[in-house]
Amino acid sequence: MNSAFEKAKPVLREIECAGYEAYFVGGSVRDAVLGREINDVDIATSATPEEIMTLFPKHVPIGLQHGTVMVLHEEDSYEITTFRTEAGYEDFRRPSSVVFVRSLHEDLKRRDFTMNAIAMTREGRLLDPFNGEESIAKREIKTVGDAYERFSEDALRMMRGIRFVSTLGFSLEERTKEAIMKHGELLQHIAIERIAVEFEKLLTGSYMQKAMRLLIDTGLHGFLPGFASYEKEMYRICNYACTELNAKEEHWALLFYLMDVRDPGSTLRKWKLSNKEIKKIEKIVQGVYDIEENDWNIYSLYALGKEDAMSIERVRTILHNEPIRANITRIEKLHTSLPITSSKELAINGSDILAWIPKKGGPWVAELLHVIEREVVSGRLQNKQEKIREWVNMWDQK
Ligand code: ATP
Ligand code: MG
């Protein structure tokens, strides 16, 4: 058994000793069956949240309305969720309240896909009433129960299905795919924040090309903000392997560049990304356009700063199918050769200029500082106070 499960075993034992059931569930069990690396170990139990909180004094009630308590055990933390059903879905969204039950079967039944509805006991035995193991062997993503019904209960599951294509490389089972093709419009009922979480996993997954093609082929992209009329352009990203991109903002930027959207801000605001994220994505998109037109020079590198410049270069490298390491090294070298990397490093400031030139302050000071900054960046003027003073005096006499 994987060491992450080994470490969590005492938690399960503790719950069982108190007379309740407890199992490993969800993505970690699926990934273990697949032989993939495991992220978070999730636990499901017949004990109520109150019972769990009594058993484990070190806890954080992170989602009591959904039955989830985070328990701290040694160095690790575990999300323990009470068996529940989600009866009473309204408006194609997951319900705001849930019903706790004492049956594992009921809990597995409310889960989205068969591969995600397998439980594992403390001893490593699988409980798999919906044949999730078979789906994993066939590398298929199949809803638990009727696909249309399950997507009507919670339409986000359609996005989740396609994002699992991206993270696992599996295919959608035929009926599951058909239901997405027919009922994509249900996605309109889902909060954009939840959709964005899944879409970003799709965008950054190892099998993004396959998933993106499917997103468009099923028509689901048409119900995502800003994408409906970009079918042809969105397909372009299916030709690029993006696993070497670093941040999710780089993935977004590549997509918008390929869609030929120069100002993605208005679309991204509909996606409710943070201002910081939007600014970064816009900067990368604009940077890629600029560098494609003018190539790198010391001024563009200085103005963008190292981090954003590297993001831009990574996206550009993907576009040209070039070796990433060599291109990034080139940018790093060019950046190291800059005399200064920000205006703060300039050896003088506005007060120095005013002390040297007997003129009243005004916008001319900032303008002159800007010219000096450019001279220094270009290497024509040394970043030493004395040298700059000489230069300023000459400028004043002109
Ligand atoms: P990952 O490894 O990418 O986190 P995961 O399967 O753990 O994948 P989570 O979003 O962490 O995905 O969800 C944990 C589990 O909760 C899922 O495996 C699934 O059983 C269940 N689940 C999550 N979202 C839904 C949903 N919308 N409808 C039904 N079940 C869900
Ligand atoms: Mg998970």
From TrEMBL:
Transmembrane domains' residue ranges: none
Anything else known: A single active site specifically recognizes both ATP and CTP and is responsible for their addition.
Keywords annotated in UniProt: ATP-binding, Magnesium, Metal-binding, Nucleotide-binding, Nucleotidyltransferase, RNA repair, RNA-binding, Transferase, tRNA processing
Molecular function as annotated in GO: ATP binding; CCA tRNA nucleotidyltransferase activity; magnesium ion binding; tRNA binding
Described function: Catalyzes the addition and repair of the essential 3'-terminal CCA sequence in tRNAs without using a nucleic acid template. Adds these three nucleotides in the order of C, C, and A to the tRNA nucleotide-73, using CTP and ATP as substrates and producing inorganic pyrophosphate. tRNA 3'-terminal CCA addition is required both for tRNA processing and repair. Also involved in tRNA surveillance by mediating tandem CCA addition to generate a CCACCA at the 3' terminus of unstable tRNAs. While stable tRNAs receive only 3'-terminal CCA, unstable tRNAs are marked with CCACCA and rapidly degraded.
Signal sequence residues: none
UniProt-annotated binding residues for CTP: G27, R30, R111, D154, R157, R160, R163
Gene Ontology annotations of biological process type: RNA repair; tRNA 3'-terminal CCA addition
Family from the record: Belongs to the tRNA nucleotidyltransferase/poly(A) polymerase family. Bacterial CCA-adding enzyme type 3 subfamily.
Binding site for Mg(2+): D40, D42
EC number(s) stated in the UniProt entry for this protein: 2.7.7.72
Residue ranges occupied by any CCA-adding enzyme C-terminal domain in the UniProt entry: 245-392
Enzyme class: transferase
Annotated tRNA nucleotidyltransferase/poly(A) polymerase RNA and SrmB- binding domain residues: 169-229
Name under which the protein is recorded: CCA-adding enzyme
Pfam families for this protein: PolyA_pol, PolyA_pol_RNAbd, tRNA_NucTran2_2
Catalyzed reactions per annotation: a tRNA precursor + 2 CTP + ATP = a tRNA with a 3' CCA end + 3 diphosphate; a tRNA with a 3' CCA end + 2 CTP + ATP = a tRNA with a 3' CCACCA end + 3 diphosphate
Every Poly A polymerase head domain range: 22-141
